[in-house]
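Purpose: get a first structural picture of the assembly so the mutagenesis plan has something to point at.
Setup: two entries, given in the order below. No constraints added.
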Amino acid sequence: MKNKTGVLLGRLLRNILRSPDTIITVAITPIMMMLLFVYVFGGAIKTGTNNYVNYLLPGILLITIASGVAYTSLRLFNDVKSGLMARFFTMPIKRSSILWAHVFTSLVSNALTIVIVMLVAFLIGFRPSADLLDWLAVVGILGLFTIALTWLAVIPGLTAGSMEGATAYSYPLIFLPFISSAFVPTETMPKLVRVFAENQPVTSIVNAIRALLYEGTVGNSIWMALAWCVGIMIMAYIIASKVFKHQLG
Amino acid sequence: MSQIAISVKGLKKAFRDKEVLKGVDFEVRRGEIFALLGSNGAGKTTTVNILSTLMKPDSGEISICGFDVKLQPDHVRQNISLTGQFSALDGMLTGRENLMMIAKLRGVSSPAQVADQLLERFGLRDAANRRADKYSGGMKRRLDIAMSLLGNPAVIFLDEPSTGLDPEARTEIWNTIKELAGRGTTILLTTQYLEEAEHLADRVAILHGGRIITTGTLAELKQMFPPAKVEYVEKQPTLEEIFLAIISKKGEI
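Result (structure tokens, whole complex):
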């Protein structure tokens, strides 16, 4: 059965290799946003650090992933529309293999995009002080965040009636980092907004990544960050599996 | 081994309040081409989807090659293949890659060799390394059917195999289907074209109002329905015959 997931994964990766524009398109928006914030707004934002690229990058990475998973919805939507999904359903393949192949594909394509965004960040002054272990922890959190959002993306991918519908959900996800500690410290926000910002997943994930990259500690936020990622993942996985079963009529 | 490849008894299916199938019964023998004939919305696709394990029936007993569709779906899936209304292929992959993918998923022992044989047989050898989304409608359909043959399933479901094809491509597909049945594969096809059923099917069932209203060979149906009368009519070529004649002449030049 692992073998079959491998075949399905191979097919999807080939799709990505043949349309590298999907990776570049996903990378461009966060890169532009990063440049905009560093060179236009950044001078006026007081974060208490002198390296705004360092401050900004974790949030930018989350935005990258949030827009990257929309392609999972799109690929699933296309598979359903083209009838390829029906073909797989009527073959002796485990249903879960079909979805996991899409989730692994998302992990690979997002990793590629993240690397591109990080390279640009290095060029404009991103200077982490993390050691290997800290980096591994960062990779782990980003990986978990990607899997969680990908399972979320599976739901509209399977149910949407149109291509636009399949990807529309990703807009609120992309804007969530703006109402968090990703770009500015939450202390300056009005009470109500601040309460929301400090208690939504992006803030704890951003703070955890910052602690790992620049302070060499796991910080206080990491457990909250992990809890959010695992929680979203389990919830989305259960709903996606139910939707998948229901689709069989 | 039983001579019955597909057995359907009392099949019912409703979507919300709308009862689509109200007790469908029919049997298909091994190696037969069986056409399910009906107008749009008669429930042909719903029937095929249930028989191919894509949908669950509300009630009824359905078995494919002796396996119960509800209780042993995995055994059923080992024995069937579905070619839906749209060519179900990955347009980003080449024809050969599409075939290789399905061959590997079906556990075919030498996928590359089998893929090449099918490409040859379906006249796709020259297009083997081109991306499938660059194929013409007829080529896509041929690749689609070729993909359905991998792993030699005993039963093949063809849902409106010639919809959206030009007359030339349709003739090609018809020849392919006949050839398949000649090799012993059981074929259930749905169609809304009387001509298609007449051309291909050993037996025909007419699905209307949620039930099979009649089943039989073409000869039997002809005997039952409008009594034969003898008339003399000047035979005018149909537009299709004219089209095909012109095309084949062009081919000669």
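Chain B has two domains: 4-89+153-252, 90-134.
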